[in-house]
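Protocol step 4 of 6.
Sequence for Efflux RND transporter periplasmic adaptor subunit (Pelomicrobium methylotrophicum) entered exactly as in the expression construct, tag removed. Do not edit the line below.
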Amino acid sequence: MTHGKSVRARWARVVLGLSVVLLLTGCGKKEEVKRAVPATLITVAQAQTREIEVLEETVGTVESVVDPRIAAEVEGRLLQVLAEPGQEVAAGELLAVIDARDLQLAREATLAEINRLQALIANQRRVVERNRRLLEARFIAPSVLDESTAQQAALEAQIEGARARLAQVERNIGKTRVVAPFAGQVESRTAVAGAYVRVGDPLFRLVARHGLRARLPFPESAAPRLSVGQTVRLTTPTAPQHPVTGRIEDLKPMVGVGNRAVEAIVRLEQAPGWRPGASVNAAVVVGRRSGAVVVPETSVVLRPAGTVVYVIENNRALQRVVQTGIARDGWVEIVSGVSAGETVAVDGAGFLTDQAAVTVREGRE
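Step 5 output, structure tokens:
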């Protein structure tokens, strides 16, 4: 019995020793795995100082300075329609012709009335002159001369009225030729040859090549920072390849119930492809901030601690909680947390943690 207990005790010590050896071996392997984790491959850049533009941004609309609608100014039947949608027209180019025959007849009748009145006036002047001589010879009473003089004045007033009617008729005859009031492109046409139109009936709609402006609404909070003459950068979906730079030429209050917003007016020069009624994205330069510290936007990442940038020192990533400002053109302003000249992680920053080992890849510095 004693011999059996001795054997079991020796086997127990052997098993315990092997267990300790295996445990120590496993710990060593874990440490080796930890030591074998590679450094994160990143690119870096220097925090820079730049002048940053302070912008007020909004979305507005484009409108024409001139009314793009062309309507009939006289009644009549449309004899010809000479313009089609999409057609480029010059200022003064003929677009349509309205029947002018009724107006021409009215002109002839008015001319005949003028000729009749001229004959009556010539005769009445002779009557007045004769009555004047008879009165001097005391053959007639003064009232006779007064009556003939009044008749002459009445005839002269009638002929002035007839001449005014003639001018109006001739002006209306000119309006039967519908012409483009400005250079542009025919956007739409409602005129149909043979149709009878009345005064005010729409015929065409033109898109002006020039004479456009943008109306830009801003909230009350932005009003103190806006002023006439400030630079405005504008883009529109109808011509994204043609951005326009202009200046505020007027500021108008938009006062309403619980609203003291302001509207900026910007005249658009050299704006090919821009159309009235289109939306416009606008950014007004309300100030400039010089000496601002900026880093690439990919350097700024979110962590539980907040918004952070990783500063690289001795191949280690040091987490810095930062306060950001204006972001523009791929760069972000750092108000606090990073100084100009410090090296920050760029590509790969999103994979870093504080004190992580890094390997810097050439090419971004």
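Step 6, annotate. The two ends are 80 Å apart (CA to CA).
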